[in-house]
Amino acid sequence: MTVSRRVSLWSGVRYKGKQGMLNWALHRITGLGILLFVGIHVVVSFFGQQFGNDLAFAINGIYESWQFQIFVYFCVLFHAFNGSRVALMDIFPGLIRYQKELIWLQWLIFIPAYGLPVFVMVRNALAGL
Amino acid sequence: MTTPKTIRSAGAFEYGMWLFTRISGLGLLIFGAISMGVGFAMGGRLYLDMPAMFRWTFFPNPNHVINSNIPSIDPGWSNAFWQIYSMLMIFMATVHGVNGLRMVLEDYIESPLLIAFLRGLTLLMLIGGIIVAIYVVLAS
Description:
The complex is a heterodimer of chains A (129) and B (140). With 129 residues, chain A is mostly helical. Chain A is built from 5 helices and no strands. Chain A has helices at residues 9-14, 18-51, 54-64, 66-91, 99-126. In chain A, α2 runs antiparallel to α3 (54-64), α2 (18-51) packs across α4 (66-91) and α4 (66-91) runs antiparallel to α5 (99-126). With 140 residues, chain B is mainly alpha-helical. Chain B is built from 5 helices and no strands. In chain B, α4 runs antiparallel to α5. The A-B interface holds A 2, 4-6, 28, 31-32, 34-35, 38-39, 42-43, 45-46, 49-50, 64, 66, 69, 73, 76, 80, 83-84, 87, 90, 117, 120-121, 124, 129 and B 22, 25-26, 28-29, 49-51, 54, 58, 63, 67, 93, 97-98, 100-101, 104, 107-108, 110, 125, 129, 132-133, 135-136, 139-140.
């Protein structure tokens, strides 16, 4: 007996999972995003390194731009923070009762850890450094 | 009275991957912390701009810092230690990532035949990804 997971997108979005659901969805989206980025980056680096392919250099150039780094940094940092919280709750199951508080704490650490480097990156980019 | 539900174990494979995901995730965090710390100890504060430091933290490959102000990558930034270190990171990251893709796919697919096919496909992705990534590390 398996539970049918065939739920329409709309009823999925309307499910009121609050913070836990938001973090779950973001964890999946950022994880798949990192897999896509790293996969393309590895293959493209191979073609750039071995054959000097122009398209490969162009794609890696996009990856090195500050606009893209803001995006990648969000994905990696959020996935790392949320994954640590999940692993922490698995090691200490008593913490599951305080999931909401832990999620608030996670965002409290995430916002400066993400915001400060992004501020520096944007300031340097706009100043032409 | 309702009959109590029995929850069937997902099996040794699923448990092993569940455990591996936790261990490799925490392991990648520790590896990132070490490469960032060693990068700073080797003078990263002077030579690298912030994006280069991030690239080095995520993956300590000499190509990630070659465009910064480092005088030479030869002594510390490019050696066998970082190559072995990178290969360990590649192993943990690819298995973690491809297993995550498999979990997401199996959440939305019910046909056992399609699941078996996609498992084979993700296994091919995993092996191909590891080979290409190790080749890039050894050649750079």
